[in-house]
Each structure stands twice: as C-alpha cells, then as structure tokens.
Amino acid sequence: MRIIMLSKISILLTNHQLTLKDISQNQHLAEQDLKKELNENPDNWSSSVLSALSSSLNMRPGDLLELLDPVYSLKINDHHQMIQGIYIEDPEVYEQIRFVVESEHLEGWQPDEEDILRLLDEAINPSPKFQTEISRIWGEKDE
Asked: Residue 71 pLDDT > 70, yes or no?
C-alpha cells in the first residue's frame, strides 16, 4: 500500500515538474520532514504537509486525499442481482455471495470485481479441496 501511495505521489510531482526540494523550499518546510510524512498514511499527515503538497499541486487538500486514497464503496444492486458491477444470474447463488460479501465487509474486507468473480467461480465450480475442508470442519463423512 505504501509503495502504491509513493508511486502516486511521484507521478503527481513528475506531472507538475516538481520535486520534494521545490516544495520544501517554496512552502518553508524541512525536506526531511516532508519525506518522513509522505511515507506515512495520508490520514496521518500534518496539516502543514497536506497544505504544502496540495497547494504546490494547485489542488484542494480534500481532492488530493481523494486522489491518493479513494473512498471505497460496496455496490450491491438487488434488483439487477449485481455486486460490484458483476451480474450473478442464479438468484440463490446471488443471495449466498451477497451474504458472504456483506458479512466479510463488516469485518473490513473491501472486495473488488475480481474478488466477486472468484466467489462466483467458486460457487459455480467448487474446488474438491475446498469441499473436503468444509466437510472436515462440519464433521461430514465422504459419501
């Protein structure tokens, strides 16, 4: 996650032909302090660092934060039987996947389209290894 964040910042700075040294000089911040904070999660940046970076990029602080760390949204459409934009044809399978997604989402999971496709594939074509493990957990005998 940190590497992705630093990559996004590097791209922004490159596109605006800026360096951390430029920002530190123009905004009267120590370059080392700027580097140190940019290695942190943007939620932990001081207001002076956020302000320095956003003003140097001609952006509002909130827009910069949104660009660096977009807000996650779980999209479930019961009417069209879609989760994260993935259509699930079978109503029973849709309900099962929806239950798993909502339960795990409450625990902090943020599934994307690929995750939903994996769940759908596993629901339609369950792997024997996975089925054996479930049977073992529930104490069921192979028939």
From this structure: yes
Q: What does the DSSP assignment read for the chain?
A: -HHHHHHHHHHHHHHTT--HHHHHHHHT--HHHHHHHHTS-GGGS-HHHHHHHHHHTT--HHHHHHHHSPPP---EETTTTEETTEE--SHHHHHHHHHHHHHHHHTT----HHHHHHHHHHHHS--HHHHHHHHHHHTPPP-
> Where are the alpha helices (H) located in 57-127, listed in sequence order?
61-68, 91-106, 113-124
What integer best gives the mean pLDDT of the chain? Answer: 89
Q: Could you report the per-residue pLDDT of 114-128, keeping only the tens digit for each?
A: 999 999 999 998 888
Is 143 part of any domain? no
Phi, psi (degrees; rounded to nearest 5) at 77: -125, 100
CA angle 94, 99, 102 (to 5 degrees): 115
How do residues 77-116 score in pLDDT, each as one tens digit?
999 999 999 999 999 999 999 999 999 999 889 999 999 9
CATH, residue 7 = 1.10.260
Domain that holds residue 82: 76-138
